[in-house]
Amino acid sequence: MEGKARNRTALLEAAREVIVEEGHRGASLGVIAGRAGLTTGAIYSIFGSKRDLLIAVIEDIHRRVIADLQQLSDPRLSLEQVIAVYVAGRLRAADAKDAAPLLAFETELSGLAQSDPVVSTRLREISVRSDRQFAESLTGRRDERGLVVDERRAGYLALGVRALVLGFEQRRLRGEAVPEAMVLDLAIAMVRQ
Length: 193
What we know:
Elements: H1 2-22, H2 29-36, H3 40-46, H4 50-68, H5 79-94, H6 99-112, H7 117-138, H8 151-173, H9 180-191
Helix pairs in contact: 1-2, 1-4, 4-7, 5-8, 5-9, 7-8, 8-9
Domain HTH tetR-type: 5-65
Pfam families: TetR_N
Organism: Crossiella cryophila
């Protein structure tokens, strides 16, 4: 089982690298497998298809974002501090050298979701999971009025803040100057509503 997990990780890393270099349409299974030091049979054995490998790459990207923001679970952080850590982490991720091609890849895969119900379902599950994890980090914290954020409000805040930050991430990726303080001010304004 250890070997399969290691091969899965190697294939995900190779796929991510090839997608960044070539785009997902140019990411042939042979090139990905070769980069990972494996065969295309390993891709089919582990993922089942190229589509499932590509979706797994998106899942891995989202998993990494959440892992990078593990400090959100620190109970000592205030609601506003959690929002600040989230905003800073997401905007920092937008500055990474591979951020633009990976966002383009995710956007293209979202386009494919319009005609492929499997892709649509899996991408929706990834998004819902990410929102839920962020919402969990907001739940139970007190806002500036001293009110405890319940699950319902946390869900709304997570969705709204993520959408706001995603819009500014895209602007940053296009080379626009997007001050982190401005994005944080807007996110905190949402919290105070």
